[in-house]
Specification:
heterodimer; A: 195 residues; mainly alpha; Cytochrome Bc1 Complex, Chain D, domain 2; elongated; B: 466 residues; 14 helices
Amino acid sequence: MERVGATFLIAGVLTFLLGFFLQGVMPILTLRNVPVATVEEVANPVTPEFVDLAEEYPAEFERSFGKPTPASFAEALTLGRDLYVAEACWHCHSQFVRPVSNEDVRFGPVSTAEEYQNEMNLPHLFGTRRVGPDLIREAGKHSNDWQMAHLYDPRSVAPYSVMPGYAWYFEDDLRPKKEALALVAYLQWLGSWQR
Amino acid sequence: MRPTAAAGALERPLVNLDLVRWHLTASAAFLAVSILGGLAYAFQFHNLYPFQGVELLSAGRVRMVHTNMAAYGFIANAFIAGMLFAIPRLTRRPILSDPLGWVIFGAWQLFMILTIVGQLAGYGQGIEWGETPIFVDPLILVGLVLLVVNLSVPILRTAETGLYVSLWYFLAAFGWTGLVYFMGNYLPQFWVPGTAGAAITGLFIHDLVGLFVTPIGWGLMYFFVPVLLRKPIWSHALSLIGFWGIAFFYPMQGVHHFLFSPIPMYAQYGAVVATIAIEVVVLTVLVNFFGTLHGRSDAIRGNLALRWFYTGMIMYGLTCLQCAFQVTLTFQKIIHFTDWVVGHAHMVMFGVFGFWIFGFFVELWPRATGRPWAHPRLLTAHYWLTLAGLSLMIVDLTAAGLVQGYLWANLSHWAQSILASAPFWWTRSLAGLIIVAGQALFLWELWATARAPIARPVLAPVVEAA
């Protein structure tokens, strides 16, 4: 009986490995010649929106990130991405534009694999559902102020929205905390490389 | 020691019914957490989320609790209970160690609570169905390994000459589950970024359904259905085809979650073909079970557990039929990212595996508590409310998905897709309320039965359903 049991265990592992090779390893091999950029590389140069944040919210920005340098931008991007994951933003916003359904007209250029070859996509945030629009071409579509107001109370700028507000990322006097600055910096980075 | 334990004073009972009872209890508790989270989340879509403005109960975080507790709290606990009952009976060997069983029970519930707390505190992981916080992942892996050791030893030590198909499924699932969990929670998080990482998470999403939930679910069906019908499975040859078909095709399907993404097209085409292939395999399994039922279909009316099982199987057939269409690129153009997929997920996770689990409860709870069901009519009401609520939800979300998909494709303003969805989302909330009402009856009945004053051995807990 031990022999039969072992057969099933080994066969199970083999079919798993076959599937893993065809559907996991081969896509990895296909992309092996595209180098994986670090967050520091991704954050250089700094986006104009990040510089704008430093001008629009000088005291808060100074306190949170100092000056808008590649180093502080890398810190903001990492924090923004982590908050995007923590709040599960990716459950309602996708991050890839498909070549069908007029998505290139609505959102912008169709996504390509090399765009995601960086440490910001560990893990990738392709998403699973679009209650709100795709965000991979979000950079520059709205102003920083719009993004801040939308993050605090989405209905204040998009009356039809069903997105929750994230008031806990703002001070009592509605000035943005470090987290709000980081989230907006991250959103305004998405697709900035395409401009 | 339970009164049903038919063993001498020194001999261990074959089945540890206390462990079964506690795993079922935990399963029911996490069912409550999951559906309450889901219901609350549904009201976000009317801007009526009950915990608006509360950071620790933010809607996005609660959604992670909803899905993860459904998979790892509700389904996993009930499946462990089912296997703790089925494996010793099939092998005539008790599990390796009862104390180890209790350690696994306690540890698993602790991990669930850590997961809930971690996700609400903002430590959810960015991997679908793997949102369990990064610090919980290694704990769950250790728990899985211990569980596999505890449950596979009786299978490997059995003196029975032929290994029944249920045990094939269990052994295969034991081999797969740890691999799947490791692959999905670690590779895309630490080593494989972006597009290739998406291929891996796609594999993980589908392997979790296909290589953990599905084989254990079918393994338990192959055990419970013939036992309750008191006749052997229709065809052992077909069960063989079904098993190897699932084992071969299921692990190749993952990328179908990301069609039209930048993942190489050969992987996408492969996933589509493998998915359509498995629908044929699924047909053989269904034919086998309905062949077994042939001539005894009155049992569906009289036995509530069997009714849950066969309703779940019909849902399984519908899901797989739907899947054969929705996996094609033609359908994906429109329905991807819409509520259609949410409806599909509910049909699988709740309509199939949830329904089977309710069947296990109907059969096992009286045995595990040593008491007959207190109010069998409540159980029947639970069946009808759950079936009605879920059916409404599936039809509603499928239709909503088509509306959303076409509004996106025709370049309507985004607001149109939200406004047009409003009636569908209200219907979904109504369906959710019906489901929650049904589960409230069910949980009350579990409580009332367990608390009933007279304990007597229950040998054949057949529920006469109306």
